[in-house]
Design brief:
The protein is α+β, with helices and mostly antiparallel strands. Helix content is about 60%, strand content about 5%. The protein is elongated and about 95 Å long.
């Protein structure tokens, strides 16, 4: 079989592999979408059976308590915070490199005089590519196509590189380094699977550009091509490895800043952010939400009798129960030493009470081996805006409700009292000497 036919066959195979790598997640997403709809249908049926009126509103959603089937590692929600970085850094770097390379190509092609017959084509190629970059980077409106700006820029770069190589000598072009540059830079920004697909597409584009110029290459250009492709895949591997470690470091930083190390729940600072955000959302939409605060009963006694390691086990066990007792859209956090809170969006007081009571029952019934009596919790339930219109007011009401359950005998759920809590702060005057009280 001639070399040209082998190259064409290799290009076809590489293109199929690349598109298979790029389209594989779509099939996984479709399968998950179908399975999630099946689960939602089952939950809707269960809610309809629990609610004879057939009202699938806020209360029915709150009454169904589901647990996350995934192992809890890093909490990921739609409102999860991000590490403070420059959101435009990647776009700015891509913009600078793109335009610098386009201007360099124009200068090299015009100043060197190596390709007089192709100079006009090179200039047109640079101009068209620059116009396409301008549209993608600055002109394209915020549409679904705008969200695909990254992949579109990658495809544009490969088309530009293959056209430039074909115009400047094929496999012996001095611009063949463009392919490793594109793949190496892209591998830093995308997942390893996408980086591999990008490398395969670049290989196909490189072979196509070389075959157009010389359909029957000799051994020298073939060796050059093999060396360039080796560098391309090595750069893809290095870029994918470094990019993966950077993403892991970012996820670890998010975890350290938002998650309690002992229990794996969100920490107090993240909960305050989520609460303020939910209050703002409630003000805009007019929808209520609930907050649950629970406190472990007699944790000090457990620490004194069994040691602090046992106390930590109790805290982790209760945290697991709280995590399993709320929905994915809820926010569960460790508020203090032995206090936990849960934010329940779009939940009315009845739904909040049901969630709190279920958590209390599971804690009381589950127990821990070797710890007798087992742990129990006192729970307070408040709702927005009935029990407070600010984060501080809601927390004061939740604290008051929780201590009302403790005063009622512990291991129970209580609501906040109707009357507001009065906090009197009496100023303390410094003691004065008797002699100083004499009039001057």
């Amino acid at each position: 079989m001639p070399v040209s036919e082998l190259v064409v066959l290799a290009i076809a195979i590489l293109s199929i592999i690349a598109f298979a790598l790029l389209l594989a997640p779509s099939f996984v997403w479709l399968r998950r979408r179908i399975s999630s709809r099946t689960v939602q249908d089952k939950e809707a049926t269960a809610e309809a059976m629990a609610d004879p009126k057939g009202n699938p509103g806020e209360t029915s959603r709150a009454l169904v308590v589901t647990a996350d089937d995934d192992d809890f590692d890093l909490p990921l929600t739609a409102d999860a915070p991000q590490v403070k970085t420059d959101p435009n850094l990647e776009d700015r770097v891509v913009r600078v490199v793109s335009w610098a390379f386009l201007m360099a190509v124009a200068v090299f092609a015009a100043a060197s005089g190596l390709w007089p017959g192709a100079l006009a084509s090179i200039v047109i190629l640079v101009a068209v590519t620059g116009e396409a970059l301008l549209i993608l980077q600055d002109v394209l409106p915020r549409t679904p196509l705008k969200q695909a700006k990254g992949p579109l820029q990658g495809i544009l770069a490969l088309v530009f590189a293959s056209s430039l190589v074909a115009l400047t000598g094929g496999l012996q072009s001095p611009f063949t380094f463009t392919f490793p540059l594109i793949v190496g830079a892209g591998a830093l920004l995308v997942a390893p699977r996408v980086a591999l697909a990008l490398a395969v597409l670049a290989t196909a584009a490189y072979l196509t550009a070389g075959l157009i110029v010389d359909p029957t290459p000799e051994i020298g250009p073939l060796v050059t091509m093999a060396v360039n492709l080796t560098g391309l895949y090595l750069l893809a591997y290095i870029g994918a490895s470094v990019g993966r470690e950077q993403r892991r470091a970012r996820d670890a930083a998010i975890r350290l800043s938002t998650v309690d190390a002992l229990t794996g729940l969100y920490n107090r600072s993240y909960f305050f952010t989520a609460l303020e955000r939910e209050i703002a959302r409630g003000d805009r939409s007019g929808r209520a939400f609930c907050m649950v605060m629970l406190d472990l009963d007699d944790l000090k006694s457990v620490n004194d009798r069994f040691g602090h390691i046992a106390g930590d086990q109790v805290l982790r066990a209760v945290a697991d129960i709280v995590r399993g007792g709320v929905r994915k859209i809820d926010t569960a956090a460790r508020y203090g030493g032995d206090e936990f809170v849960a934010l329940l969006p779009e939940t009315d007081p009845t739904g909040g009470w049901v969630v709190a009571e279920k958590i209390r029952q599971v804690v009381a019934e589950q127990g821990l081996p070797g710890i007798d009596p087992g742990p129990t919790v006192s729970v307070g339930v408040v709702s927005y805006p009935a029990d407070g219109r600010s984060a501080d007011a809601l927390l004061v009401s939740a604290d008051r409700a929780m201590y009302a359950s403790k005063r009622g005998g512990k291991n129970r759920v209580a609501r906040a009292a109707a009357e507001p809590m009065a906090i009197n702060i009496t100023p303390i005057e410094a003691p004065t000497k008797r002699g100083s009280e004499r009039a001057g």
